[in-house]
Amino acid sequence: MVARHGRSFERHQDIEDPDHPKTLIAQRRHARDALVLKRFLGLTPLAEKYHAGLLDRRGNAIAHVRKIVALAEIHGDDAVVRAMTDALTFEAFSSEYIAHLIDARRRQLPEPSPLHLIRRQDLLELELPPPDLSAYSGIRTGNNPQDEVGGDHDHV
User: Which of 44, 103, 139, 155 qualifies as a FRET site for 129, CA 20 to 30 Å off?
Assistant: First the structure.
């Protein structure tokens, strides 16, 4: 029984039981959830296993199922099935993970530049100027006793 109506003998009165719409709304929500779950399970045979993982690891699995079905409507079933298959291999049960995988695959990477390979023979033909070591002439090496601090003092 969905609703129980109370009797009233007064005319032109709108009498409503406050619990009546709650039951009806709950039934409609369960019917919508059943349709969404049916659509989700129809995506791939792996969807049942993924749903079991959502039930085990997520508190509100039906919310994740709704988001995944919405992703399937936006991006297509193939992209969602591929992302769901990858998520199953890594045991990542979340609608956000599937959305991230779909977005990562949709991003266009820049065109790679042509590879420039240098042959060893070309390297042998390079002519380099001799190195200028004049910048290193003022550096003390520590091998000469006069290079130490106060090297001008006589040692007795």
Answer: 139
